[in-house]
């Protein structure tokens, strides 16, 4: 007899203190802190069928993080027995599931629940939220949706005509047998450099279509030793010191000028070129793999096996422009044809799509899309004037190019928790950032970005919006962000 999965529990009808959207690192961290501070009732909803956000959805071969394990984990949910220096997707996803179970978040979690709209009810002082499973009401709304889950597929002529298998790396088709196939991979970003080395040995032929070569640094990944794991389990101080060491190694990049074109830029470029020379003896291939922009302008990638994979006899690098996709493969602008059986898009994500896909309406009927029509921005990347009791985690200008996003997420969670505690203490209904505080913060960020490497480094990247503005990355050190954002200053807010 075939068993069917039980129907999901009904959504609560009571007014929530906090509704958290997203069950990745951000949402889980916020939920844990709500439990610890006695803030409730709260609910975490996620459109997916599992815990972990991007680490649940991205299951392509070789998926891994480029920040060390002990730094890419929650400080208040440490793990002593990471298997490798750099964590791989299955272990990160398992860590998040284990953390949810250990911290007792299960009863507060509703998966398979997509949020479609959120409207601020001024009279009641709460958010009315529409989901595909029914309505919810919450005094505060926390977005932990992240940015890396809406695949971006380029509008190449003939894209829908391809007769073979095609998919985006974020929606990997594990039922597609790649053995002996002619495979085309479009894109050379963070996902491609991880899965290409793993699928290349299986392919009859693999053609990598490169628009712009990335800067690639050695990763130096390794298994964690039994001695290290034992010490971290027995001595929490040793584990904490190891995490601190990793933090400062990464943080020094910003403190020494990594966010601007500097002497450090030239030194890093020299190391990257040495890494390329060691792995690729063919000068012509090496030249096509050498970037023509400054290191750091685009995301710097780390890999020990990407360059060697490109020297395999069955792998070809195509750096010309794509003219069109045909039922049989890809035709280049110079007329070259590449017959293909499988086409994989490693073309990244639409980073601006997360919040825009959820209709969010604040005070006085102001839509978030209207508030951001002249540019995306939030105070400390967390709160937006005109949108009371709304908190963004991993919001505008809080991304990093040099250190762990988990540290930034924890700071943002503490900021939101501080605001919620202030609400509770004052007996108020709403807390909203003052427009002058938001304007001051955004002016400071834009001034710092004006001469940043992402603006002056000679490239275009997904960090920039359609107007060429960087609304993605934080232009300074993590320490500077922590000083300003970890604890809310009530003079920047209005309680009502």
Please describe what this structure looks like.
With 496 residues, the protein is α/β, with parallel strands linked by helices. The protein has two domains: 15-150 and 350-495, FAD/NAD(P)-binding domain (3-Layer(bba) Sandwich), CATH 3.50.50; 159-215 and 282-345, FAD/NAD(P)-binding domain, CATH 3.50.50.60. It has 15 helices and 20 strands. The strands form five sheets. Strands 1, 2, 3, 4, 5, 6, 17 and 18 form an eight-stranded mixed β-sheet that branches. α1 packs parallel to α12, α5 crosses α6 and α12 packs parallel to α15.
Shape: globular
Instruction: Specify Rg, calculated over alpha carbons.
Output: 23 Å
Q: What do we call the CATH topology of the largest domain?
A: FAD/NAD(P)-binding domain
Instruction: List unreliable stretches of 5+ residues.
Output: 1-6
Largest sheet: 8 strands, mixed
Give the class-level CATH name of the largest domain.
Alpha Beta
* Total beta strand runs: 20
For the termini, the CA-CA separation is 58 Å
What structural class do helix, strand and pairing data support?
A: alpha/beta
Under the CATH scheme, which architecture of the largest domain would be assigned? 3-Layer(bba) Sandwich
How many H/I helical runs? 15
**CATH-wise, what's the superfamily of the largest domain?**
FAD/NAD(P)-binding domain
Strand fraction: 15-25%
Q: If you average the pLDDT, what whole number results?
A: 94
The total domain count is 2
Percent of residues in helices comes to: 25-40%
Question: How would you briefly describe this protein structure?
Answer:
It is built from 15 helices and 20 strands. It is of the alpha/beta class. The chain folds into 2 domains: 15-150 and 350-495, FAD/NAD(P)-binding domain, CATH 3.50.50; 159-215 and 282-345, FAD/NAD(P)-binding domain, CATH 3.50.50.
């Amino acid at each position: 007899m075939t068993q069917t999965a039980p129907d999901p529990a009904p959504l609560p009808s009571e007014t929530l203190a906090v509704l958290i959207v997203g069950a990745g690192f951000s949402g889980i961290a916020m939920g844990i802190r709500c439990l610890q501070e006695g803030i409730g009732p709260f609910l975490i909803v996620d459109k997916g069928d599992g815990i972990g956000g991007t680490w649940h959805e991205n299951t392509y071969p070789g998926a891994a993080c480029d920040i060390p394990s002990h730094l890419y984990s929650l400080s208040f949910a440490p793990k002593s027995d990471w298997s490798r220096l750099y964590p791989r997707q299955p272990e990160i996803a398992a860590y998040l599931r284990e953390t949810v179970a250990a911290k007792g978040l299960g009863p507060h979690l509703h998966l398979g629940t997509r949020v479609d709209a959120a409207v601020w009810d001024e009279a009641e002082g709460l958010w009315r939220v529409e989901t595909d499973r029914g309505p919810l009401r919450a005094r505060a709304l926390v977005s932990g949706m992240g940015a890396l889950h809406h695949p971006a597929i380029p509008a190449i002529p003939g894209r829908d005509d391809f007769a073979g298998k095609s998919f985006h790396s974020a929606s990997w088709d594990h039922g597609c047998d790649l053995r002996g196939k002619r495979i085309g991979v479009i894109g050379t970003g963070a996902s491609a450099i991880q899965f290409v080395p793993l699928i290349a040995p299986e392919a009859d032929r693999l053609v990598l279509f490169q628009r712009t070569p990335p800067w690639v640094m050695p990763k130096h990944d390794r298994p964690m030793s039994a001695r290290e794991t034992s010490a971290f389990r027995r001595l929490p101080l040793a584990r904490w010191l190891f995490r601190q060491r990793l933090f400062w190694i990464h943080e020094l990049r910003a403190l020494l000028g990594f966010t601007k074109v500097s002497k450090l830029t030239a030194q890093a470029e020299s190391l990257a070129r040495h890494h390329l020379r060691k792995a690729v003896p063919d000068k012509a291939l090496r030249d096509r793999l050498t970037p023509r922009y400054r290191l750091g302008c685009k995301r710097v990638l780390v890999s020990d096996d990407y360059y060697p994979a490109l020297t395999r006899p069955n792998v070809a690098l195509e750096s010309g422009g794509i003219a069109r996709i045909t039922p049989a493969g890809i035709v280049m602008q110079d007329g070259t044809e590449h017959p293909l059986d499988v086409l994989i898009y490693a073309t990244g994500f639409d980073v601006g799509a997360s919040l825009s896909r959820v209709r969010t309406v604040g005070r006085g009927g102001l839509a978030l899309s209207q508030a951001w029509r002249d540019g995306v921005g939030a105070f400390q990347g967390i709160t937006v004037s005109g949108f009371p009791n709304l908190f963004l985690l991993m919001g505008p200008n809080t991304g990093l190019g040099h250190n762990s996003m988990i540290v930034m997420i924890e700071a943002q969670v503490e900021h939101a928790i501080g605001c919620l505690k202030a609400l509770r203490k004052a007996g108020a209904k709403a807390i909203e950032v003052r427009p002058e505080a938001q304007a001051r913060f955004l002016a400071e960020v834009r001034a710092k970005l004006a001469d940043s490497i992402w603006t002056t480094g000679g490239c275009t990247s997904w960090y920039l919006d359609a107007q060429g503005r960087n609304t993605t990355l934080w232009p300074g050190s993590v320490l500077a962000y922590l000083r300003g954002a970890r604890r809310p200053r009530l003079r920047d807010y209005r309680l009502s």
